[in-house]
């Protein structure tokens, strides 16, 4: 994929159309075998979508806990000049939602994600540290605009998870620069793809670090929050260069109060030419931060574009140990 030098750009409608055309050409010259039209998915996922919808009852969604045990502990927001901007619960945005699954111990888990524009209208970005574990993920699904135990746009089953191989190989600290994931979803039980159901945001690539107005959304752990709703905050971002040799890299940093454990994967949103652009997800440095008032994101660069292209093409995802 041709990229415009080192300048920032967004994967928006024009780029999505180009990728869609390239995928169609690739499909037309593929080797003989069981053929699928570009963007088509094997039959059968609608049954799993219906089963997932039936499984994720309000009680089960409310009982789910953050994908990663532990979470951030209260502490001083070092390096922040002035008061930390407050967060407040709200009913969410249609494009931002929650992944739900049950792990190997039948514990319900969750992590945030955001629908981004793509040729097949089926991609969500999230944090890699939520999804890196090889532990089984049963009933693995995405619920857009989840709040208060509700599924206002239905349930979409997960088909594939795309993480950078280096994140698997180096771990959550050594690979902190690649703490992002692209997730491909199956259609809702009625055959509707997620982007057609709720819309999508542009994916901002090489966005820079300094932004005066950034909206941060995250789903807090139920044990930490008074309301089972996502949090919303408006603040600014800047570059943070890690001082931890175990977690090297440059990251987006934002001050927003109350982003406790569970908010991982939530988007950093800025206004673009066609609505919001996603320029980060809560994660990266120390899997998103050490205190609830400071959050981080890995920087969205060309490596994320490669993951996005792999997801669009339906390439085989990386796997734990696959790079060794």
UniProtKB/TrEMBL annotation:
Family matches, as InterPro entries: Peptidase_S1_PA, Peptidase_S1_PA_chymotrypsin, Trypsin_dom, TRYPSIN_HIS
Gene Ontology terms for molecular function: hydrolase activity
Residue ranges of every copy of the Peptidase S1 domain listed in the record: 68-317
Pfam family, one: Trypsin
Organism, as annotated: Streptomyces ehimensis
Gene3D superfamilies for this protein: Trypsin-like serine proteases
Name of the protein in its database record: Trypsin-like serine protease
Enzyme Commission designation: 3.4.21.-
Keyword Chaperone recorded: no
Protein keywords: Hydrolase, Signal
Classification via PROSITE patterns: TRYPSIN_DOM (PS50240), TRYPSIN_HIS (PS00134)
UniProt keyword NAD, yes or no: no
EC main group: hydrolase
């Amino acid at each position: 994929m041709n990229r415009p030098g080192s300048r920032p750009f967004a994967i928006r409608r024009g780029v999505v159309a180009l990728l869609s055309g390239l995928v169609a050409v690739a499909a037309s010259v593929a080797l003989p075998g069981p053929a699928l039209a570009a963007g088509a998915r094997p039959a059968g996922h609608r049954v799993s979508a219906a089963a997932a919808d039936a499984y994720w009852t309000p009680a089960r969604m409310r009982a789910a806990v953050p994908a990663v045990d532990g979470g951030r502990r209260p502490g001083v927001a070092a390096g922040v000049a002035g008061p930390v901007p407050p967060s407040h619960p709200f009913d969410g945005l249609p494009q931002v939602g929650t992944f739900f699954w049950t792990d190997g111990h039948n514990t319900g888990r969750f992590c945030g994600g955001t629908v981004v524009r793509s040729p097949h209208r089926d991609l969500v970005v999230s944090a890699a540290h939520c999804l890196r574990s090889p532990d089984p993920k049963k009933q693995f699904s995405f619920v857009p605009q989840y709040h208060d135990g509700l599924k206002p746009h239905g349930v979409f089953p997960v088909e594939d998870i795309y993480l950078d191989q280096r994140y698997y190989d180096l771990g959550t600290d050594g690979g902190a620069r690649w703490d992002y994931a692209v997730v491909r979803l199956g259609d809702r039980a009625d055959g509707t793809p997620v982007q057609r159901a709720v819309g999508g945001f542009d994916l901002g690539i090489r966005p820079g670090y300094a932004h005066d107005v950034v909206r941060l959304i995250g789903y807090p752990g139920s044990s930490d929050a008074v309301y089972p709703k996502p949090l919303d905050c408006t603040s600014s971002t800047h570059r943070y260069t890690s001082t931890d040799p175990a977690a090297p890299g440059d990251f987006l940093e934002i001050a927003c109060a109350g982003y406790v454990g569970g908010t991982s994967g939530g988007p950093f949103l800025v206004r673009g030419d066609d609505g919001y652009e996603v320029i980060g997800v809560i994660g990266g440095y120390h899997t998103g931060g050490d205190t609830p008032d400071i959050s981080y994101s890995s920087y969205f660069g060309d490596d994320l574009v490669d993951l996005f292209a792999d997801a669009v093409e339906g390439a085989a995802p990386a796997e734990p140990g696959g790079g060794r």
